[in-house]
Amino acid sequence: MKREASSVPAHVAIIMDGNGRWAKRRALPRYLGHREGVKGLKRAVRYAANRGIGTLTVYAFSTENWNRPKEEVDFLLDLMYKAFVQEIEELKREGARVRMVGDRESLSEDIRAIWIKAEEVTADNRRLTLNVAFNYGGRAELTRAVRELAAQALRGEISPEEITQDHLARHLFTWPSPDPDLIIRTGGEKRLSNFLLWQAAYSELYVTDVLWPDFDEEEFEKAIQDYLKRERRFGQVSAKEQKE
Ligand code: IPE
Ligand code: IPE
Ligand code: MG
Predict the structure, then answer these.
(1) Looking at the domain that runs over 11-230, which CATH code has it been given?
(2) Runs of H (alpha helix) within the chain
(3) d(Cα 46, Cα 51) in Å, to the nearest integer?
(4) Distance CA 122, CA 119 (A)
């Protein structure tokens, strides 16, 4: 098991928060913050690919975000839709393979179609896996996994005693991505907001007050440098003490 965070994280996950506050500070409507946030996402994808990060998972829309005012929800759905239509060529150039991680069933037909298209068109890219957590909630993800395992047990395909952590992980939206090494949250809130509850078990957390639209290459590098200074212990004693 990797102990020292001595190499660039293989998987970085980002809670892209603070678009609304970014707009508010400029006396602009919230939606303009979201639009600016898409530019930040493009920047982060390019940086991750160039920096040798294998997997980038971004929290784009949570299951709880449906509770926002309808105009904001509609704007966010439309923004994602357009961003992916416009950016597919760019993603191909970056060598990024897109995967939507989230509940597809409850999305409208056209939004579902755009994700399928984005996944198909970029399927052969290998430089970076871009997981987009869209209509994603950690509890919903775990509930779905448990339901699928229960159904398998009822069909007699697996016995409950045989179910391992690995079985459960295989039923998560993020499978087969590894667990994130580093989770970055912009906007300063020190919480997970239902993001990757299972997968975050041993992730290093990095919170910055920088608002998502202002999170540029320099800020991304700061997070990586902070990560590189950490000692990952995974419940064991410090490597230094073990040598003594
Ligand atoms: C994050 O920015 C984007 C989404 C949740 C879709 P917010 O819209 O939450 O911005 P703040 O937290 O209100 O500033
Ligand atoms: C988390 O941000 C969700 C996304 C970034 C998509 P929120 O703004 O929804 O989280 P809370 O409400 O501050 O916990
Ligand atoms: Mg927020």
Answers:
(1) 3.40.1180.10
(2) 19-25, 30-50, 70-94, 109-121, 138-154, 165-170, 217-228, 239-243
(3) 9
(4) 5
Q: How many angstroms separate the alpha carbon of residue 168 from the centre of ligand 1?
A: 30
pLDDT reported for residue 85: 84
Q: Which ligand is nearest to the CA of 64?
A: 2
Which residue numbers are catalytic?
A: 17, 65
- Taking only the tens place, the pLDDT of each residue in 30-50 is 999 999 999 999 999 999 999
Ligand 1: which residue has its CA nearest to atom 1? Answer: 17
| Region at 187 (left for phi over 0; alpha for psi -120 to 50; beta for the rest) | left
Tens of pLDDT, residue by residue over 178-210, are 999 999 999 999 999 999 999 999 999 999 999
Could you tell me how many residues make up the chain? 244
Q: Domain boundaries in the chain? A: 11-230
**Structural contact between residues 56 and 131, judged by C-beta atoms closer than 8 angstroms:** yes
The atom of ligand 1 lying closest to the CA of 60 is 6
